[in-house]
C-alpha cells in the first residue's frame, strides 16, 4: 500500500508529512507526538478530508477501545487530508511541567514490589486487568493466529519495511520465517537483514544462527510488524520529510 501525503497541524505546527495507511492509530499518535510535542494520551486527533474542509471526525474519541488495531486505511485517511491535533491538557497542568532530570526516584526490586499491597500490579490483579484479565489468554491466542496467518504470506528474499515500529521505519530483506526457540517456542518470527546497522544481532540468538548478517544488521520481528513490497534501500541520512 503506497504512502500518502497529509497536512499535520496543531496550535504550534503546520507541515506536510508522508504516512503509511497501514499504521495503527496508536503508532500514528506516537509519531504525531514527535511533531507536535503533545503526548498521545493528551491528543485529540481530528481528521479533515482536505485542507479547506470545516467538517471533521474525532479519531481519538471514536476509537479509544481499538486504537491498537485500527489503521489509517480503516479510518479513511486519504491523500491530501489534514490531521489537526489538539492538546487536551489544562493550561495549569502545562505550566507545572518541570525538568525531573535531577530528581531521585525510589526503586524496589521485583520481589519486594510483589509483596506490597498498594501497587499497580496488585490493583490489576484484584480488578482482573491487563494480563490478569479473563480474556487475556484469548487475545493472546488471537494475536498469535494473526501472526501465523501473516507469516504464510512472507517469502525469504522479499523486500520489506517495518510498520508500527517504535524506532521508526526500517527496511531490509527477509532471511528466515519460522520458530525461534531461543526467544519462545510458541510464536512465529521473521529473521531479517536490515539495510543499515539498526538491528540487534548478526542473525543469531544465543549462539544459534538462523541466518547470517553483519553485526547489528540482523533482527527478529513479528510477522505483523512487516509489510512486503518494492521498498528500495534508503540511506540513514536521507531527508524525505516523512512523519
UniProtKB/TrEMBL annotation:
<protein>
    <submittedName>
        <fullName>Cell polarity protein alp11</fullName>
    </submittedName>
</protein>
<dbReference type="GO" id="GO:0005737">
    <property type="term" value="C:cytoplasm"/>
</dbReference>
<dbReference type="InterPro" id="IPR029071">
    <property type="entry name" value="Ubiquitin-like_domsf"/>
</dbReference>
<feature type="domain" description="Ubiquitin-like">
    <location>
        <begin position="2"/>
        <end position="92"/>
    </location>
</feature>
<dbReference type="InterPro" id="IPR036859">
    <property type="entry name" value="CAP-Gly_dom_sf"/>
</dbReference>
<comment type="similarity">
    <text>Belongs to the TBCB family.</text>
</comment>
<dbReference type="GO" id="GO:0005634">
    <property type="term" value="C:nucleus"/>
</dbReference>
<dbReference type="InterPro" id="IPR000626">
    <property type="entry name" value="Ubiquitin-like_dom"/>
</dbReference>
<dbReference type="GO" id="GO:0051010">
    <property type="term" value="F:microtubule plus-end binding"/>
</dbReference>
<feature type="domain" description="CAP-Gly">
    <location>
        <begin position="189"/>
        <end position="222"/>
    </location>
</feature>
<dbReference type="GO" id="GO:0035371">
    <property type="term" value="C:microtubule plus-end"/>
</dbReference>
<dbReference type="Pfam" id="PF01302">
    <property type="entry name" value="CAP_GLY"/>
</dbReference>
<dbReference type="Pfam" id="PF14560">
    <property type="entry name" value="Ubiquitin_2"/>
</dbReference>
<keyword id="KW-0143">Chaperone</keyword>
<dbReference type="InterPro" id="IPR000938">
    <property type="entry name" value="CAP-Gly_domain"/>
</dbReference>
<keyword id="KW-0963">Cytoplasm</keyword>
<dbReference type="GO" id="GO:0031122">
    <property type="term" value="P:cytoplasmic microtubule organization"/>
</dbReference>
Amino acid at each position: 500500500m503506497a504512502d500518502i501525503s497529509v497536512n499535520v497541524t496543531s496550535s504550534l505546527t503546520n507541515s506536510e508529512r508522508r504516512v503509511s495507511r497501514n499504521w495503527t492509530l496508536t503508532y500514528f499518535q506516537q509519531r504525531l507526538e514527535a511533531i507536535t510535542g503533545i503526548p498521545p494520551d493528551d491528543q485529540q486527533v481530528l481528521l479533515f478530508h482536505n485542507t479547506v474542509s470545516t467538517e471533521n471526525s474525532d479519531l481519538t474519541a471514536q476509537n479509544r477501545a481499538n486504537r491498537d488495531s485500527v489503521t489509517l486505511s480503516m479510518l479513511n485517511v486519504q491523500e491530501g487530508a489534514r490531521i489537526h491535533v489538539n492538546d487536551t491538557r489544562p493550561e495549569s497542568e502545562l505550566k507545572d511541567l518541570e525538568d525531573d532530570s535531577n530528581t531521585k526516584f525510589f526503586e524496589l526490586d521485583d520481589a519486594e514490589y510483589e509483596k506490597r499491597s498498594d501497587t499497580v500490579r496488585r490493583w490489576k490483579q484484584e480488578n482482573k486487568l491487563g494480563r490478569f484479565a479473563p480474556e487475556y489468554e484469548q487475545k493472546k491466542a488471537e494475536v498469535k493466529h494473526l501472526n501465523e496467518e501473516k507469516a504464510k504470506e512472507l517469502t525469504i528474499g522479499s523486500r520489506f519495511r517495518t510498520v508500527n515500529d517504535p524506532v521508526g521505519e526500517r527496511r531490509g530483506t527477509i532471511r528466515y520465517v519460522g520458530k525461534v526457540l531461543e526467544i519462545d517456542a510458541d510464536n512465529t518470527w521473521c529473521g531479517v537483514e536490515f539495510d543499515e546497522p539498526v538491528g540487534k544481532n548478526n542473525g543469531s540468538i544465543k549462539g544459534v544462527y538462523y541466518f547470517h548478517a553483519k553485526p547489528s544488521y540482523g533482527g527478529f520481528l513479528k510477522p505483523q510488524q512487516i509489510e512486503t513490497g518494492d521498498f528500495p534501500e534508503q540511506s540513514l541520512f536521507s531527508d524525505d520529510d516523512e512523519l
